[in-house]
């Protein structure tokens, strides 16, 4: 009798232990790397607040170079950065950078989401200038400085420094906006007039965030592009300027993190 009880107890213990021993540990999915692409009249420092928030929350962040020379050429550079990253990537573009990420993500199997931050999301054949002019509200053209001729042809475009704060960064402290004006990166007229060819937002999930006081890209244009892309989320920040990522980094980082979590 005693032997039978011992044997039964051992069998029961083995039955309890075996499933635990056979169960495979759950491996959490790798967090996407966040690749940020700045737009015209800005540089990578415009992402500083967003980068700080993302890094605080444990994300790996890369501010990709954007020469603002041409959509396809800039997209090729960003695509190279994406290709070098092992694991999933969420691509984020501001302004003209939206055109760049739309092209760069095409054919990149590790891009799981696109986030448009006050950005263009053009369809094939569309240009940044064409989209901005399709809806009323942009006051950019009168604020541009005289074009700077380039040796190889074409022109660089800048916003007049005195007009930059009100036009580009009206909700940013004036001293900071003046620094941004002095350090702005020019875009070529050709880049703004170059037609997109392969919009990845047609098959890659997208998220949009922009301000309702944007003076560069009309909010109506961004609403149209978000709806056309079937955006998973569209956040409109009240009173935010074109540089919503500078004035409202927490809100922008939040949208990016929700895009990252949706993979």
TrEMBL record:
Secretion signal, residue range per the UniProt entry: 1-23
Domain AB hydrolase-1 residue range list: 34-254
Keyword Signal applies: yes
InterPro entries reported in the protein's UniProt record: AB_hydrolase_1, AB_hydrolase_fold, Sec-Metab_Biosynth_Hydrolase
SUPFAM superfamilies, sorted: alpha/beta-Hydrolases (SSF53474)
Ranges annotated as spanning the membrane: none
Pfam assignment, any one: Abhydrolase_6
Highest taxon listed in the record's lineage: Bacteria
Keywords linked to the UniProt accession: Signal
Protein name, UniProt field: AB hydrolase-1 domain-containing protein
Organism: Novosphingobium lindaniclasticum LE124
């Amino acid at each position: 009798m005693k032997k039978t009880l011992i044997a039964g107890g051992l069998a029961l213990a083995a039955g309890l232990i075996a499933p635990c021993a056979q169960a495979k540990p759950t491996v959490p999915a790798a967090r996407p790397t966040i690749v940020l692409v700045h737009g015209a009249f800005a540089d990578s420092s415009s992402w500083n607040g967003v980068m700080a928030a993302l890094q605080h929350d444990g994300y790996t962040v890369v501010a990709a170079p954007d020469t603002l020379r041409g959509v396809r050429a800039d997209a090729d550079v960003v695509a190279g950065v994406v290709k070098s990253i092992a694991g999933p990537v969420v691509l984020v573009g501001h302004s003209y950078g939206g055109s760049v990420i739309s092209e760069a993500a095409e054919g990149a199997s590790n891009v799981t989401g696109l986030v448009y931050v006050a950005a263009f999301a053009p369809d094939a054949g569309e240009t940044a200038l064409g989209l901005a002019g399709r809806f009323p509200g942009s006051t950019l053209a009168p604020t541009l400085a005289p074009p700077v001729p380039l040796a190889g042809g074409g022109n660089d475009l800048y916003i007049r420094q005195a007009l930059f704060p009100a036009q580009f960064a009206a909700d940013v402290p004036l001293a900071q906006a003046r620094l941004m004006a002095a350090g702005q990166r020019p875009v070529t007229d050709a880049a703004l007039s170059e037609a997109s060819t392969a919009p990845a937002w047609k098959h890659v999930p997208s998220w949009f965030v922009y301000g309702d006081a944007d003076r560069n890209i009309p909010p109506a244009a961004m609403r149209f592009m978000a709806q056309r892309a079937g955006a998973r989320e569209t956040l409109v920040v009240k009173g935010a300027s074109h540089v919503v990522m500078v004035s409202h980094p927490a809100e922008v980082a939040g949208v990016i993190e929700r895009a990252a979590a949706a993979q």
